[in-house]
Amino acid sequence: MFEFVVGSPLNIVLILGAVLVTAALLIWVERRVLGFLNERLGPNRCGPFGIAQSLADVGKLITKEDWVPPFADKMPFIVAPVIVPVVMLLSFAVIPLAPGVGIMDLNVGLLWVLAMAGLGAYSAMLGGLASNNKFSLLGGLRAAGQMISYEVFMGISILGVVILSDSFNLREIVEAQHKHGWFVFSQFIGFIIFVIAGLAETKRWPFDLAEGEAEIISGFNTEYSGMKFGLFFVGEYIGMLLLAALIPVLFFGGWYAPFEWLELPNAIISGIFWMCVKTGFWIFFFILVRAALVRPRYDQLMNYGWLVMLPLSLINLLVTGAVVLAQGN
Amino acid sequence: MSLLFYIAAVISVLSTLIAITRVNVTHALLYFILSLISLGTIFYTVGAHFAAVLEVIVYAGAIMVMYVFVAMMLNLGHATIDQERAWLKPSIWIGPSVMAALLLVVLMWVLKDTGAAEMAHTVTAAKQVGIALFGPYVLAVELASMLLLAGLVGAYHLARK
User: What is the pTM (predicted TM-score) of this model?
Assistant: First the structure.
């Protein structure tokens, strides 16, 4: 019962705890790193280097008044913030962290992540719709349009990986990369499209038009306060963590070290170590993107998606399929 | 698995019923989404994993998002709810309920004689679904693709100024 087998209670408790703690820490990491990049200090008062800032934030959010506006549609208003963290945590269940470390070994694991990402769109939509506020509605509309558009080629961009590894199972995809080399080289276009679409899917900078502080206050979460807002916030960070863990699994060899001689002696420790290194790299990349890029206009976002990314991902799929077919014969 | 199936089935039937009887369109859509997700669970329990995930991706994740999107654009206020309430008077329900009950009796009569089916007796892999779709059912796939293409061209024509 208490050993490292996929889906054992020990695994479930440890992974759930690690994901939640990391997501809370990420809020502090992001603010601090962004602060340094903007030549300011960021939160540095709570605990050493401000590391307890998230705890203080949680304390503040929980003790705040939990307010539902009288003009809001109550049931969807309360359901909306719960959806995104739940869906993101469910997606995490299929992420393989090391041999034997994970919660589910689903044979349709990759599709499961896409399905959960699709359901995640409801959070922002229902939040915007139920708030009964013009700014929220605009934010919700933007979120819906953006997420259903970018979901399309997020799905198509990883089909190249599926063709090459011959499986939807994330563990088999990692093993296939161990045999054939990292997919980032053979699927470079798919990789670029996946990273951009994934950023849009998590509504992170530069794709946070759904919140667009400059034009629509805070978009879909304008009317939310206290822990309901906190759930949207935590959900976004779990989503960022999920994306940062999914990119290594799909394109950077998962739990295997880049070179054979870099593997640590114990397979599980080595796997977790390398997954953490790769995930950490992508998290810092996302924070750097946030500090470096500006937000596009909404029509630019849509045109870029449908006129550039969709054709590129379709061509990538076609070429990959043709090459695999030719090699097979 | 069997217990999971029955729980999902009960949720599915109940949420569909509630979806029909709601007067507020957003609430009705939410219950409908719940019904689709529980349908996905049912597919999973009988071994159709690929269909289960596709049910959630296509129906709950894409088509219903479109419905909610349209509901957001239409600005349905209290007037619609009152209209809906006027339409869904209790007396309206009598006819459909009697006919549905008759159908239920017929269905139960048919199901009475079939033996108990084993849960998840075969797990259908995604590969088998693909082979079936592009083997014996390739004509249906091609017809569906033509229908979708026609829809796409039509939408483009309507949206073009």
Answer: 0.87
